[in-house]
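Sample log: Tripartite tricarboxylate transporter TctB family protein.
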Amino acid sequence: MTHSGPAGTEPEIVEDKPEDVAPPPAEGLAALVFTGIALILLVLAPVETQPQPADRGWYLAPVNWPVISLLLAAISGAVLSWQFFAEYGATTDKALFRRQAFSAFDGLGRALEYSFWFCLYLIGISYLGFALATLAFMQLVIWRAGLRGPKWVLTAALMTVAIVVIFRLGIGLWFPLAPIFKLLPAWVGNTFGSVL
């Protein structure tokens, strides 16, 4: 516990909460998974990057920095993965070790759900347009987060307007007319298509 407050006043007692610390088996399993991903990306990097420009030095090849970063991640991940397997072999309670290891992915379900909604949002941009897809995505995200009052609906709508203004006017990012406007009368697409 810590005590805080101005001198001469009754101190306010504040409980110190220990930080969430992942158990070593969870760290090891996460390292194993990320090492596997790094190795897959290392194999794909030469195929998925542009070739080196002929008139530039080798260090400017687009594949170099991703390969260096992935190689460092794979090496450090391999060390942690080796420790993970060594600890698993040395432990007597294998069931407890596995439970602790899989606790590394306890919060993954919510993250995967939001990633799924974001992928749908990216697809929705090509059908609904930037503004309408952003409005739908923002409303869905606040609803899934449990923020269901009118204040939050209005806040999400205002954030959508701000994002559209920043992207359209600030950055100058424009998308072609969304297919949904072809289903509406021509004046709707001509009037609102460039903004939405």
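Observation: The chain is about 65% helix and 5% strand.
Observation: The mean pLDDT is 82.
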